[in-house]
Amino acid sequence: MLDCGMAFSADLHLHSRYAYACSKDLNLANMAAWAKVKGIGLLSSADFTHPAWLAELEENLTPVEDGAYEFDGVRFVLGTELSCIFKQGGAPAEFICWSLPPDSMPSTASVRCSRSCIPS
Question: Strand 74-77 and strand 42-44: pairing?
Fold first, then answer.
């Protein structure tokens, strides 16, 4: 368990190998290995809305507590980046939000539904 009174390092802005222009070697094993090298105790699983990645997360992450999961001694929380692209004053603009869902693994069906309910 991560002690809130204790300092720790976290990286919550990550991507999986399913994200555009990311290494195909970006998997849980490599993420955990590099987190250990860098002294990072908590990572975001990143891109959990991708169906293949979500299936991998469900298969390989072990629930621990408070919505956290573990893989090879490194804690993970689910997360995904939301890129909001729009026009402002006729010019393209963008801001990025990071979403951390509630404390349980979403089902593939609920992720699919939430993605299809977004108006275009």
Answer: parallel
